[in-house]
Amino acid sequence: MTSVTWQRRRTALARFWLQYRTQRAGLVGAAILVVAVLAALITPFVIDPTVMDVTKATGAKMAPPSLEYPLGTDESGRSILSMILWGSRVSLLIGFMSALLSMVIGTVVGIAAGHFRGWASAVLMRITDWFLVLPSLVLALVLSAILGGSTSTIILAIGVTSWASTARLIRAQTLAVEARPYIERSLALGAGHWHVMSRHVLPNVAPLVLANTTLQVASAIVAESTLAFLGADSGQASWGSMLRGSYDWGATTAGAWWYILAPGLCIVAVVLAFTLCGRALETVLNPRLRGVAR
Question: Is 12 part of a structural domain of the chain?
């Protein structure tokens, strides 16, 4: 039985890859993400972390790109390229983890609100509406200021303030799934709430959750960069904190375009890559979207 199950999963993955390969934009996005993730993973093995120490910087301040410093230096003489690589670890970590936290909360609340009716659903949806009405960025800024600056704080602040739209989406899909006849037959045979939600509803909403998670990572990276620019950084170098540093030290007026352009382009490229992958996943996993322009 186990071998049959694994065979079905391998067949499903092969079918998914064949369909995903037809999405050219998705392949471009996946290639960018692979490069970004590999760069973040190998950075500790190729670049000494002491390069981030301002007391050990040896370069000229605000020096333009050169052979020694391909992307120039910052206000302390540190290599922008090294900061970009080390900053990618923090930005990607916050993006992935906060999106994961957001999707877990949104999925649990959405399935529960769609499955349970009456006062339970009403309470969950009123809480969801409250989070939808409040500006998530402002709420995340307040939370990070109260809890203190750290990577885990930023992840928590972004994750707990960005799940409401996901909950709405999952609830709508849950209502559609539970309207199908086999759900009624399962309940008639004595299936409990946990069985219906975990065995029937969750597998059917999982493709939507996967596609939405990819898009949520892009939003989380933008949110982290915005929070860092506003001063609520994690205490470690990230692309957002680099933009903040370029602003504080007047990189624009000093003509240090490399200090602004490098982290800005990294944010744009990674966010675009996640968006392309998310749209491609949405097209592959939703049969009604297949055949649209790629």
Answer: no
| 173-191 confidence digits (pLDDT tens) | 999 888 888 888 887 888 8
Residue 7 lies inside a defined structural domain of this protein: no
Burial label for 65, CB within 10 Å (0-12, 13-18, 19+), is middle
CA pair distance 117, 108, nearest whole angstrom = 15
Answer whether residue 70 is part of any domain: no
* Structural domains counted in the chain: 1
Q: Is residue 13 part of a domain?
A: no
CB 110 within 8 A of CB 167: yes
Task: Provide the CATH number for the domain around residue 208.
Answer: 1.10.3720.10
Residue position matching structure tokens 């009123």? 126
Stretch (H or E) spanning 238: none
Cα separation values, 129 from 53, 114, 132, 161, Å = 45, 15, 5, 12
- The phi and psi torsions of 73 (rounded to 5 degrees) equal -130, 165
Section 19-39 average pLDDT: 91
pTM of the model: 0.86
